[in-house]
């Protein structure tokens, strides 16, 4: 006769529980998200920059130095609000801009600078003129826009 002994059964089939995280579903979700981002990245054109429109400032200064940048590396400087205009006669090369701006700023340190640039002027040139104006000590630098 066979006898049933539960202790012998538990010894034979003693299995340990496998405590493990199944990461396959997480990898599937990440792959789907990666595909979605890759497809949507092709739909966005990185060359389009939506710049805000500029409004006229509330208080326009009475006197300011206007720097006009032209695409052929020539610059004109006008002192608006005064009778003597420095750049009235002709344009000059951009390498003289720093010296002239330093002289104008020494005469009137509180006078702001307004920069106008032709559409054909590179953005880097405008940024370097702003940097030169800040180096010479000009506190207020503005960019002229069309409305």
Write a concise keyword list for the protein shown above:
alpha/beta; Nucleotidyltransferase, domain 5; 147 residues
C-alpha Rg (nearest Å): 35 Å
Structural class computed from helices and strand pairing: alpha/beta
CATH topology of the domain at 64-143: Nucleotidyltransferase, domain 5
**Overall average residue pLDDT:** 78
CATH architecture of the domain at 64-143: 2-Layer Sandwich
Low-confidence stretches: none
Order of helices and strands: HHEEEHEHE
Q: What is the helical fraction, as a range of percent?
A: 25-40%
The helix count comes to 4
Give the biggest sheet. 5 strands, mixed
The termini sit apart by 106 Å
Count of β-strands:
5
**Which sequence of strands runs across the widest sheet?**
3-2-1-4-5
Strand and helix map with partners:
Elements: H1 6-12, H2 24-43, E1 64-69, E2 74-80, E3 92-93, H3 97-107, E4 113-117, H4 123-135, E5 141-143
Textual characterization of the structure:
- The protein is of the alpha/beta class.
- The protein has a domain at 64-143: Nucleotidyltransferase, domain 5 (2-Layer Sandwich), CATH 3.30.420.270.
- It contains four helices and five strands, in the order ααβββαβαβ.
- It has a five-stranded mixed β-sheet, covered by helices on one side.
- Strand 1 (64-69) and strand 2 form a beta hairpin.
- 10% of the residues are buried.
- The model has no long low-confidence stretch (mean pLDDT 78).
């Amino acid at each position: 006769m066979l006898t049933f002994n539960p202790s012998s059964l538990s010894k034979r089939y003693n299995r340990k529980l496998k405590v493990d995280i199944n990461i396959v579903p997480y990898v599937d979700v990440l792959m789907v998200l990666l595909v979605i981002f890759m497809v949507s990245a092709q739909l966005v054109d990185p060359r389009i920059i939506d710049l805000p429109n500029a409004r006229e400032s509330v208080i326009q200064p009475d006197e300011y130095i206007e720097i006009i940048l032209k695409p052929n590396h020539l610059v004109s400087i006008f002192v608006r609000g005064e009778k003597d205009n420095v750049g009235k006669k002709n344009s000059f090369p951009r390498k003289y801009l720093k010296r002239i701006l330093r002289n104008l700023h020494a005469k009137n340190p509180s006078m702001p600078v307004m920069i106008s640039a032709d559409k054909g002027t590179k953005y880097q040139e405008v940024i370097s003129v702003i940097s030169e104006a800040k180096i010479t000590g000009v506190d207020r630098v503005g960019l002229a826009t069309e409305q």
